Amino acid sequence: MNEQAKTISIRPARETDASAIVRLIGLLANDLGEQSPVDSNYVLSFMRTPGNGMLVGDLAGEVIGLISYTLRPGLYHAGDSCMIEELVVRDDLRNSGVGGMLLEAIVTLAADKGCPEVSLSVMPFNTKAIEFYRRHGFVDEAILLEKHLHSDDQ
């Protein structure tokens, strides 16, 4: 971890972070060659929904990264599982340890809540993300299939 990462704190997201969160999600979408319709109102709705949560990396009062998650009940494990929804760090701070700090914080949070597992999905072409998650102990366990119900073509 570099010196800058030592000054970063990980904390729960606050409603006042909504616009910074929108910018970070926009950055993530851009990295994937897409656009996200997320706005501050949706961020606030997500934050207020039971079972949803978000942690942010804070550097001198500025949100520089985020990890969002959902806790969902599962019959197989007879308990809640934690699903990481998004993890993104500002471009200029990537490879500085911030993503690892956010990921470690969510794994600890899930363990403290008694979750038997933490899951996530990643695009198959995103080899850097796949390598990052594997370095942090995540393994190929399942395949996530999707069916998109809305298209820009409609």
Characterise this structure.
- Helix 2 crosses helix 3.
- With about 150 residues, the chain is of the alpha+beta class.
- It has a five-stranded mixed sheet with strand order 1-2-3-4-5, with helices on both faces.
- It starts with a helix and ends in a 19-residue tail after the last helix.
- The longest helix is centred in the last third of the chain and has 15 residues.
- It contains five helices and five strands.
- Helices cover about 35% and strands about 25% of the residues.
- It has a single domain, classed as Aminopeptidase, CATH 3.40.630.
**CATH first level: which class?**
Alpha Beta
N- to C-terminal separation?
47 Å
Number of individual domains: 1
* Overall strand count: 5
Please state the average pLDDT score.
91
CATH topology: Aminopeptidase
Q: What is the helical fraction, as a range of percent?
A: 25-40%
What order do the helices and strands follow?
A: HEHHEEEHEH
Low-confidence spans = none
Strand residues, percent? 25-35%
Overall outline: globular
Biggest beta sheet summary: 5 strands, mixed
Largest beta sheet: what is the strand line-up?
1-2-3-4-5
Instruction: Give the helix tally.
Output: 5
Rg, rounded, reads 16 Å
CATH architecture identity: 3-Layer(aba) Sandwich
| Name of the CATH superfamily | Gcn5-related N-acetyltransferase (GNAT)
Computed structural class = alpha+beta
List the keywords.
single chain; 154 residues; alpha+beta; Aminopeptidase; five-stranded mixed sheet; 5 strands; 33% helix
Summarize the structure.
This protein is α+β, with helices and mostly antiparallel strands and 154 residues long.
